[in-house]
Amino acid sequence: VTDRERISRLEALLARVKARTDEPRSDLPTEHTENGEQHAETYEEAELIEEPTDDVAAAAIGADDFLESSHPEAIGHPHADSRFPAESSTLQALPPPPPNSSNNAFVAPDSSPIVLSPTSPASLEEAFEQYEMVSEVVEVTPDAEDDAVRPSVPAPIMSDEAFAQADELQLRVSTPIEEFQSQQRLVVAPSSRPVSGVDAGELEVLGEADLESDEVMDVETDDLLSRTSDMDVQSSRPTRQAEEMIATILSTGLDAPPENANRPVLELQDEDEIEEPPPSSRRPVSHEEVHEQELTFENDPPPSPLMTPPPESGPQVALADLSGDFDADFSGVRKDPADEPVVLRAPLADNSGVAVVVAPSPPRAAATFGELIDVALSI
Amino acid sequence: MRVDLTSAVRFDLPRGAVHTTGSGLTGQGEERAVLIPVAALAEALASAPRDTREHVARAVGGSIGRRAAARFGGSSGVRDADVESVVESLAAEIALAGFGVLSLERWGKALVILLEAPPAFDSQFFAPLLEAALGAATAWATRASLTCLHLSNDDDGSRFLIARGPSGEQVRMWMNSGVTWAEALRRLQRDGGNR
Fold first, then answer.
1. Least CB-CB distance to B111: which of A367, A368, A376?
2. With b meaning 16 or more CB within 10 Å and e meaning fewer, what string describes B51-69?
3. A222-258 pLDDT, tens per residue?
């Protein structure tokens, strides 16, 4: 297959995508496309299909899905992760494979409905050629996965059985599970329902009932993106055309790559590798001031500031008893006998006759009461 | 002389009457009296007009003076009697009526009556009472005007000045101007009341 053919296919696919985008969406899942590709099958239809042989299955992969197979360059592509939902929905719709089946590791049993579709590859040689190409691309070593920059993968919301099936698919295509973004998982299992309690049978019903045409559209778009990324690896000339097609697809409003898809994963250094600052650059321990608004019932109060412990208290020595020698009258100043004078006083105890008081003569005593009244009324 | 107060008051219980010994000066015999509580008399005097109070007081004092003078045979006997005997007779009649203990003080020439432990009457009530008692005992009112002026109410009692009318009025003016009663008496003796 030349690059021109691939480009022509991609253009046809792009035209088909646009046509499908313009078409009104229906609740029933789309079974066949114009090119004969079959991406979503109901469980009843899948049961009627015979189990494909290894060669036919490989041819199917090479015919339709060889570009969507995993390869080292596609691991880091952001759109490569969106391939998982369609495969996951098909996987859940199909019954488990027989235990004695000896399928090739590269055979995707989930894509068996695609094998017997009317639009299978034209010849087995082309299919084998594509099979070889896919085999070369799919073989991914774990070391190469670790070195590649991986997009951030949200936590999977699936049951254990779904995980087991996803792991099985991973083994078959030799693709790490981290590459498959779990968008389809979110679509299959309703978000309001706890996924942990969902069994495989319930997942089938959910896949049938909740699978809409939009999901199929997403799958097709992802396939196209995967093919374009693969084309970039094999040939550098059609890269610009592929980029234009990708831009066209993105302009149609389909799935956009996550913003942090190409963001490298930050790797933290181990604690042992962090060098300890020199003692000269160390600062004393200090606590940040915590405001009252930050103190809630959930937050513990800040620890008390570090303080030096109080000095140890030892036995106190009692003072000596000074009451015996203490003199209350002693002021500390001693008198000098030469400073006190000698006083000589005269004895003046008997002074009755020293002074004589001269006063006006008292009024003459009235002899009678009439005389007293006359004197009193004389003034 | 000692005042003999024997049978000074006679209680005639079958007739329900109280009698006081009559004074010889007036020639009247026994005088009927009533026992009136001090509070009731004080309330009656407080509610009565000033002229009524003075009239009652002069009536009571005249009665006391006449009884005291009766012991001396009249006002002439009082004037001829010694001072102590007259004071004893007056004090006895005042005490018998229940108006306190009477004594005389001489501040120079000024004559002051000290009434100790008087009943709770207005001091203005005792001035006309004492004036009437002295006037009735000595019959001084017939010779000149005699004035009894309230000086002070001290711890030891109430003091009243016995003076002539104009001298008494001068002392009243001095005391109203803020002069103490002692200074007023000094001024009265220094300057005299005949200005």
1. A376
2. eebbebbbebbbbbbbbbb
3. 555 555 444 444 444 556 667 777 777 666 655 545 5
- Global ipTM: 0.75
**Given pLDDT bands bounded at 50, 70 and 90, which one contains residue A167?**
low
- Mutation target to probe the A interface, by most A beta carbons within 10 A, among B88, B102, B109, B186 is B109
* C-alpha span between B107 and B162 (Å, rounded): 11
**The tokens of A340 are what?**
């006190």
Complete edge-to-edge strand list for the sheet that includes strand B9-12: B9-12, B17-20, B31-33
Instruction: Check CB contact under 8 Å for A379 and B192.
Output: yes
| Residue B148 main-chain phi, psi, to 5 deg | -110, 115
Q: Rounded to a whole number, what is the distance in angstroms from the first to the last CA of chain A?
A: 167
Phi, psi of B170 (to 5 degrees): -65, -40
Beta bridge partners of B20: B9, B31
Residues in chain B: 195
Residue of A nearest to B170 (CA): A379
Q: How far is B121 from chain A (nearest CA, A)?
A: 27
The Cα of A337 is separated from the nearest Cα of chain B by a number of Å equal to 56
CB atoms within 10 A of CB A191: 8
Tokens of A7: 């480009």
The position carrying tokens 């009927």 is B32
| Interface contact flag, A379 B144, Cβ < 8 Å | no
For A278-294, write each residue's pLDDT tens digit. Answer: 766 666 555 556 566 56
Radius of gyration, alpha carbons of chain B: 17
